[in-house]
Amino acid sequence: MHGLPAVRQIMQGSTGQERKQSMREELVRLFENARVPRYTSYPTAPHFSGDVGAEDYGQWLEELDARHRVSLYFHVPFCHQLCWYCGCNTTVTHNRERIIDYTDRMARELDLLEARLHSRLKLTHLHWGGGTPTTAGAEGILRLMARAREIFDFDNDAEIAIEIDPRSFSADDIGMLAQSGFNRVSIGVQTFDSTVQQAINRMQDFACVKTAVDGLRSAGIGRISMDLLYGLPHQTVDTLERTVSRVLEFRPDRIALFGYAHLPARIRHQRMIDESALADPTGRAAQYEAVGDMLSRAGYVAIGLDHFALPGDSMAIAARNGTLHRNFQGYTTDAADALIGVGASSIGSLPQGYVQNHVRTDEYRQSIEAGRLPVARGLRLDAQMRLDRAIIERIMCDGAVDLRQLAEGSGLPDHAAEPNAAVMGRLHELGIVRREGTRLEVTRECRPLLRLVAASFDRFLDPSGDRHAAAI
After folding, report:
1. pTM for the full model?
2. Alpha carbon distance 416, 433 (integer Å)
3. Around Cβ 468, how many Cβ atoms within 10 Å?
4. How many C-beta atoms surround the C-beta of residue 283 within 10 A?
5. What is the pLDDT of residue 389?
6. How far is Cα 58 from Cα 373, in angstroms, rounded to an integer?
7. Separation CA 448–CA 306 (nearest Å)
């Protein structure tokens, strides 16, 4: 294959910054048009269908017993202002009655869940996402947290986390979170550059983030995560490095570095973003690499594809121990047997398969009012799907996998764990993947391509589709 050994030759030849730049340029040349899923689940959500519904979900819940550990996800699909880069299920509202009505339905969904559970299950993680979860208000959050504690047996070390927008975060919110037992807060920073902020409709200064961080730590909520984005309009390596320098002043436990996925055909408000101001694939790769280098020099451990954590953080420890996981919230230490989603569009993962609630809040509301679990679609897992999922998770988390070991654990023959031969052969010849027997390992220089390697095990992938984000 013409030109394919180039990556391996770069790795064996030049050194230092020259080598990194040559590697970046070669990977972009080879894969700039590749689009693959983020693999926060497998099979991915586009493959869910109406063949799985509320009754299936109810039966699956009934089959959980005291042996099973669970985690909860609460989804609040409201914001006070729409950020144009956002790909989440959310809508802008200032209507308190609408929000109160929605949290009432979430409480009713918890009632429906309790009716199908035969045991008071141990809960190890609870995560609030959105949207902006704090739009639920103190009364809504306190009520739902109290109800969750009535239904589930919270582990003493349970991680209870929430995402916040520091622009609308108040001292009252801090007190409410402390009262409710939250011990981790994820703060959306994205960027501190004013030009980029204007281009994405998210004006946010350093002072409001500092106020939030100082207040949380004073209240005893010391586990702080921060989200950053690269590949935004008008963003450069220099502007990103300045943002990272300011973020490092807070010394958060974890930093997530997400690449902006520009999908205006699917996400209408992204059409407000000037495509001509977006970096090309080479520029995106340079931004990703520059931030990774800065965080590594600052003492952070690189985790998986896009996370960084201080060495003593539980996520860094899990990465070292090979117990890191990946679910709909991204990288996590959550090893629960079942993830139960509550709220519109939320996704649950149970031993039997996946379920997703109605995305539209009116359809979600109608199901709840009818006394039905609000499931719109799902997917029942078979043995092959479970094996492929386990392989993809280890690649995304560890950058390495022993295929025979996972095949033996699945009860399937060794050949069931083999990837797409043509794709894996190309990756191996390029030097992106090393294989010794049944063990595969992604070379450290090529870790930005973890999703591409995982895709070689994706039996559902349509390579011609434009649904997914760019691989680089």
Report:
1. 0.92
2. 19
3. 21
4. 16
5. 97
6. 7
7. 8
